[in-house]
Amino acid sequence: MADTHHVQRGIAVRRNDMLFAFVAAICAMVFASVIAPVHTAQAATVGSITIDAQWNRDTADQSALAGDTYAIVRIASAELDGDGTVRSFHTVSAFERFDEDWTTLTSSELNAAAKQIGTYATEHQLYSATGVTDATGRTTFFDLDAGLYLISRTNAAESNQRYGCDPFLISVPETGDGTPTFAVTAEPKFSDNGTVTPPTPNPNPEPNKPSNPTQPSRPTVPANTGAAVGALALFCIGMAVASVIIFDLKRRRSN
């Protein structure tokens, strides 16, 4: 009888050990499912585009074009290499009719495409964000995913209506010098279209406080509230079950 009792206890112990191992494995998988999305999100990088609107740039008569409204929309996502440079662009569905091999287009071809897409985006209200230039002629769009962006001046201040500005395309990141830059500065080109009085240069312009073109935007971490709470709840339940099993195992071994 004693041998039978020991055999039964051994079987029970082995079953408990197997059950404990199973619960531990489930807990590990649940915990990994909570942590992995956070690590992936932290690895993602976003950028910014600062529009620097100046008339007669780099001359004694340079004037900041303040009070103008610019609109922005991403027309293509970007696939990046390991060093952050753009490998290829993929036109988003809203602009698929304008699909091109964007990395092979010349400057004139990009300008022509920007004009066409700008008209289309305005007609179909596809712009995702707008900003107004401050006293220094600057406005910044933050938290931009990698891709090719269309920028259009959608409204000009009364004193700036003389100066024309065509839509243009710009990439985030920008790799003009071979090094990827996620804090991009765009310098729109202007044409003189009339006799409207130009803006008076401000000798002491105040910079736009939110703008910080020398620093890239911080990576964003997508919300993970619902999934994380559920996963953590499962993790806690699993740990509670494991605790009960361990307690029962110790109790059986002490008997």
Automatic annotation (TrEMBL):
| Skewed-composition ranges (Pro residues) | 198-210
State whether keyword Nucleotide-binding applies.
no
- Where do the coiled-coil regions begin and end? none
Q: Name the Gene Ontology biological process terms.
A: carbohydrate metabolic process
Q: Which residues cross the membrane?
A: 227-249
Keywords tagged on the record: Membrane, Transmembrane, Transmembrane helix
Q: Where is this region: Disordered?
A: 186-223
Q: Is the keyword Ligase assigned to this protein?
A: no
Superkingdom per UniProt: Bacteria
Would you tell me the protein name for this molecule?
Answer: Cell surface protein
| Lineage start | Bacteria, Bacillati, Actinomycetota, Actinomycetes, Bifidobacteriales
